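User: Run a structure prediction on this.
Assistant: Running it now.
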Amino acid sequence: MSRIINATGSTLEESLAAAVAEIVSCDLEKVTLKVEAPGVDDVAGEHRLTLRIHPVVEEAAQVAEPVAESSSRPSDGDDPEDSDTTVTIEDLEEEADAAADFLEGLLDALDLPGDLRIKVHPDHVELEVIEIGSGALIGRRGQTLEAIQELVRCSLQRQFQRRARVKIDAEGYRSRRLEKLIEKAEEAIDAVLDTGEAERLEPMDVFERKAVHQLVAEIDGLESRSQGREPARRVIIEAV
């Protein structure tokens, strides 16, 4: 039996965030998400987002239980670069298809133009919405894009019962943001080397944390770890 979520907010990012909170609390173990147009409008200053949740029929094959995450667990075994789970190209393509269906539905609901650019990497997939002609999917300081990323992450993890490895971008926003985060990480590295005091970086998504972990790993005398829960999970850089 399907279930409909009606999320509202004064902005699109608020309505998406409300949808994320609702799907996280959903008691279904495995779901797929679709945005059914027309599902987003602006009436009296209020944005409404309609999602239909479809239960996924359990297959005969045994599905592994998802690993619980501690609120202060280090990065070992938590981020994709440290995960013991083997991901195949078939797994990534499967996740990419599911995420693409959702994004296409969202574009239709918002009545926005735009095409999807899909890049399959060895350990993750990038889905970028291009030629939108506006920053509607990015929002102020990327808030809308972060809400969409979290919604897709929740959907894929519930649907496939594994850590999602799909990165959502719009008009190259994440690439530009990553450049700035690397600059801040380099400043933090210099500070730790100078003072010996640990530096706590701003919240990042899993792909941004991976880039910072790799950067720190190249510096003798330093180590990094992840702390907190998504989407407020961040990197701590400290002296060994």
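The chain has two domains: 3-56+81-171, 174-239.
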